[in-house]
Amino acid sequence: MAEEEGEIHPLGNGGKVTVYPESEEEIAEILRYANTHGKKISIVGGGTKRGFGGVNESADILLSLVNLNGIVEHTVGDMTLTVKAGTPFKDLQNALAAHNQKMALDVNWPGYATIGGVIAANDSGPKRLGYGSSRDAVIGLRVIYPDGTIIRTGGKVVKNVAGYDMNKLFIGSMGTLGVISEVTLKLRPLPKYESLVLLRFPNGDLQEIRSFAIKVLDSMMEPVALELLNPLLAEKLTGHHQYTVAISFEDNESSVHYQEDFIHKIQPEKSQIDILSQKNAQAFWDQFYQIAPNGAAKFTNTQTIEAALKIGVVNLDVLNVLREVQLLQDSHPISILAHGGLGHGLCQVIVKGSSEEVLSAIQWLRNSVERMGGYVVVKHLPLILRQKIEVWGKKPSHFFLLEGIKNKIDPNGILNQGRFVGGI
Length: 424
What we know:
By secondary structure, this protein is of the alpha+beta class.
């Protein structure tokens, strides 16, 4: 089944024709056709990451995986799940909850994002501290190469250690090496209890926040998130315009309360604390995961541009990143929502303003972060602006390896052209 695409999407990464395969065999047939006839293919799941990478308005074919969905196999006792790539993340979590289980991943826009897209982008959120990333959750994949060959990487059991872990080749490669058709994941039981401690710092003393974070990280406590929110984001989520540390606990109720008490004991003298129990904690995270730009949302013509950046630094340098964010916001007519993991060093920064100011902000932050030894990746930006900057930053020293792998697997360059590092 195919349909003609309408007008060009402002985020690009579209296709002159959209196809909706319902099986691996149909995907393989489409890829073989494209590979033989020199046609370029863009892959889309839920569309949330449409503004991530790529400098082309439209490929020849937009390959949509929305009809390749559903659970293939759920082994409750072994806590593993095999699922088709086009299945929405939230649908999976709802199905697993009936068995008191879940995927240990937290992603933006879970109602739209598909599991295939999450894995292709190696997505993760603040709970990466306790959960790990997509790479830690995946046991096996089924992938369709550009020549139509269907391969399996990994397996369907947790203890699968024979040979090189081929999964890691495809996780995070942004669909440039093959089409992920099926994913096997290890699961976790739903926590018996969950809470969220919000620790506010009215005086905005980042050194005080650093000292507090070190105490938590050096303790025996096991938060699944230790996330610092900048004042503007904290105000949006909590109503308080103050630096706020969000500390998430998941365990049995007595263990969670014990850890809450520990935070009480070590909290700095002038800080203020709120503790959200189960339902309110979940409501906070539900709101949190809908802050980032959604590439699947209807695009409205406006002078305000929205960009989303992923910033990686040594974990406590998150404080320096948020300091730079504040300096930038104080000196430019822009709005910035920012948060970063004090235990894992990944930050997300959402910048809103005019085209010129947004591009200037990206360059400012990239310069600052590179001086820290970190990196900045642009995860969302309209196409016309992506064409003016390097989304992934400078080519890394190992770029020749990435390029060699791409040339070996996709010598005709048909898949997701320009969506990965260095324009691969």
